[in-house]
Amino acid sequence: FDDRAALAPLTVELNRDVGSAGLYFDNNINALAFNVAQGQLMGLTAELLGAHRQKNAPGTPVFPVATPFRWDQVSASYNGQAVLDIRQLTLRFANNLELSYTLGLSKSAYRIKRTRPQEVTAAGVMTFATHSYWDAFLNQNEARLFFNFAGNEAPNRLTWDMGAFRFTKFAPLVNNAGLVEAAFEGRGTYSTTSAEALRVTLVNTQAWY
Fold first, then answer.
1. Chain segment 16-67, per-residue pLDDT in tens
2. Is it true that the peptide bond before 172 is cis, omega within 30 degrees of 0?
3. Which of 37, 94, 105, 181 is a Cys-bridge partner for 88, taking CB atoms 3.0 to 4.6 Å apart?
4. Distance, CA of 54 to CA of 52 (rounded, Å)
5. pLDDT of 17
6. Among candidate residues 97, 89, 96, 94, the one with its CA nearest the CA of residue 158
7. What is the pLDDT of residue 209?
8. How far apart are CA 113 and CA 191, in angstroms?
9. Are 99 and 112 in contact, with CB atoms under 8 Å apart?
10. What is the DSSP string of 79-103?
């Protein structure tokens, strides 16, 4: 964005209902993670690195009217084949930023800059129903990993498309008489086909951000 911030800054108001709100500004998003598990709504966590804070009169919140994405509205595919056995999933995009302080007249960070390249990862737990994913991990194959999250209200939709996904972990877990599951992790690499490591598309009726 400029010589002091790696990304365009944003402002966040946090109202703890104690008479005033905290206004956090000059923030950069270090990481975003989408989390969904069976029986649960999709959650989103954001890691913010900020430079400044001040007290502020609380604003009036505006809440979305659309329903959240649910666990039973997800379709997934790996290497063009449907994936039906995922029980828990975390999709994460990391900017890998850090605060940089200098000697001066402020306690706030002077810069927010990158420490290493951006990272795109997927992790979760699946029922161990086929050896194909384990083989892909052992052979370090790269293949397209695609998720589509559909909303209750049209046209709401979120897609997460990793054109060249590589497993970094695939660990079958055996617990007594239950189903055999496997914990997996992987990262998106640069795809020469799509010329990108990740494409995220959000479709909704929001007129502005």
1. 788 788 888 889 999 999 999 999 999 999 999 987 888 888 888 888 888 9
2. no
3. 37
4. 7
5. 80
6. 89
7. 64
8. 26
9. yes
10. TTEE---EEEEEEEEE--EEEE--S
pTM over 0.70: yes
Nearest to 165 by CA among 74, 47, 33, 76: 76
What is d(CA 116, CA 81) in angstroms, rounded to the nearest whole number? 33
Which of 30, 65, 36, 33 lies closest to 48 in space, CA to CA? 30
Contacts of 165 (CB under 8 A, 6+ apart): 78, 122, 142, 143, 144, 145, 186, 187, 188, 189
205: exposed, middle or buried (C-beta count within 10 Å: 0-12, 13-18, 19+)?
Answer: exposed
Tell me the C-alpha distance between 90 and 44, whole Å. Answer: 10
188 C-beta neighbours (distance < 10 Å), count = 26
Scanning the structure block, which residue is given the tokens 């990158």?
114
For 35, how many CA atoms within 13 A lie in the half-sphere containing its CB?
8
Q: What is the pLDDT of residue 81?
A: 96
Using only the alpha carbons of the chain, give its radius of gyration.
20
Q: Give residue 110's identity as a one-letter amino acid code.
A: Y
Nearest to 87 by CA among 33, 138, 124, 142: 124
